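Query structure, 465 tokens:
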């Protein structure tokens, strides 16, 4: 009996198990259920998840001492360099420097960073790995300020190849000194250099060189400056010696700049030329118009002084003469001489009038004739003066004038010897004519001043252009 009961229970359990494994029929709802994708049932593996156990490192950074250079104690490690100039930001004549933004790349081989990989041709890292390995200590000679860009992160890239070759690139802005020669300013060309050198390693430990010769320097075609035309970039290299540390490899990035002249023609040369030409207007103004001629001369002198001061304010205080200084100061001398010319005319006119006054006091009968002669030479008559001459025929007036000239000269030369009397006669006649014809200085100035200034311009532009 117990055996029979156990058999029944066993069969019952077996039937329940079979029924539980049969698929359950769903109630018909009129909708067809689409099968679910099989990949949704699979769990994706998290590749960034840290696995238990010691990870396998491709770069064995912790196994080496990277405070020493590669192949320490052996021959100098060659480090190739190439540069791509992104922009020339500014050129400052006052500070004698320039600002440049560039991509600086280093190439060397460090067998300590070699790794075996069948799939990766290279591995690229950011600036965090740079602090853990050895990199060349290149710096910019004669730099005033420099920095590595850090927006949005440090602009540093490190690429390691399986055989141990390393590419180290960074984006830098540097302000460096440039020795400029302003003797031909603003008709000048300037050559500036950016110099690279290892700070600690001499040529026995590190050999710095241009990786591809002149092709190691690349420039952006869009580089332009407001005042300069960039003529050419080129590279050079040489050894630099320091008495306390030794010889170092130094690389040079040389570039030549040609200054645009049009800005200075508009701001400096044309205004200075116009001021000189304006000073010549006084030669056509009546010599008796003292306020007009004096005010014109002073105005042109002060304007030239302002132009000279403005040009020198934007230039370094050099101890030699610049080309623009020559032009401005010669122009200033022409303007100042035009003021002195009127001073001479005014002085001679005053002397002439004083002598005529003395002659009138000594010879009252000659007063009318001398006064009429002065009016004829000046070319201006008043109504009363014209009436005083109305009763004299022209031939009589001329004869009287010649007679008076001879009388004045004879009185001035009485008591001299015959030879001295002839010389004195000529000198007296010439001096008297100069005093009587002071307006002739203005006539000569109208020709001499423009001709001299044109001649100066021809020489200036042929020498400095």
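Result returned for the query:
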């Amino acid at each position: 009996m117990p055996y029979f009961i156990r058999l029944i229970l066993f069969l019952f359990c077996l039937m329940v198990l079979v029924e539980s494994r049969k698929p359950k029929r769903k109630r018909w709802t009129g909708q067809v259920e689409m099968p679910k994708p099989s990949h949704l049932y699979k769990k994706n593996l998290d590749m960034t998840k840290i696995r238990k156990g010691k990870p396998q490192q491709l770069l064995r950074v912790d196994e080496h001492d990277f405070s020493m250079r590669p192949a320490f104690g052996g021959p100098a490690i060659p480090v190739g360099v190439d540069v791509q100039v992104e922009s020339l930001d500014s050129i400052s004549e006052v500070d004698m420097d320039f600002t440049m933004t560039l991509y600086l790349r280093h190439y060397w081989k460090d067998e300590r960073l070699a790794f075996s990989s069948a799939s990766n041709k290279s591995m690229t890292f950011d600036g965090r790995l740079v602090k853990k390995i050895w990199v060349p200590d290149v710096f910019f000679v004669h730099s005033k300020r420099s920095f590595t860009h850090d927006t949005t992160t440090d602009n540093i890239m490190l690429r390691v190849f399986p055989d141990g070759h390393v590419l180290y690139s960074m984006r830098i802005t540097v302000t460096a000194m440039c020795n400029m020669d302003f003797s031909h300013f603003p008709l000048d060309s300037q050559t500036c250099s950016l110099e690279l050198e290892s700070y600690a390693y001499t040529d026995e430990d590190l050999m710095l060189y241009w990786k591809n010769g002149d092709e190691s320097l690349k420039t952006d075609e869009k580089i332009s400056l407001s005042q300069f035309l960039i003529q050419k970039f080129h590279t050079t290299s040489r050894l630099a010696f320091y008495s306390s540390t030794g010889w170092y490899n130094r690389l040079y990035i040389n570039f030549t700049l040609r200054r645009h002249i049009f800005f200075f023609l508009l701001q400096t040369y044309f205004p200075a030329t116009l001021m000189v030409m304006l000073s010549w207007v006084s030669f056509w103004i009546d010599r008796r118009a003292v306020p007009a001629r004096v005010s014109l001369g002073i105005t042109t002198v002060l304007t030239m002084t302002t132009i000279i001061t403005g040009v020198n304010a934007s230039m370094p205080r050099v101890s030699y003469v610049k080309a623009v200084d020559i032009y401005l100061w010669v122009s200033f001398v022409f303007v100042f001489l035009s003021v002195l010319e009127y001073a001479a005319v005014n002085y001679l006119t005053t002397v002439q009038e004083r002598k005529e006054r003395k002659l009138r006091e000594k010879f009252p009968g000659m007063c009318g004739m001398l006064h009429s002669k002065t009016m004829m030479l000046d070319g201006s008559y008043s109504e009363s003066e014209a009436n005083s001459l109305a009763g004299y025929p022209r031939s009589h007036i001329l004869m009287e004038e010649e007679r008076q000239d001879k009388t004045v000269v004879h009185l001035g030369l009485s008591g001299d010897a015959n030879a001295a009397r002839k010389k004195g006669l000529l000198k007296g006649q010439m001096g008297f004519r100069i005093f009587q014809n002071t307006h002739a200085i203005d006539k000569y100035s109208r020709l001499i001043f423009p001709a001299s200034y044109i001649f100066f311009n021809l020489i200036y532009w042929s020498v400095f252009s």
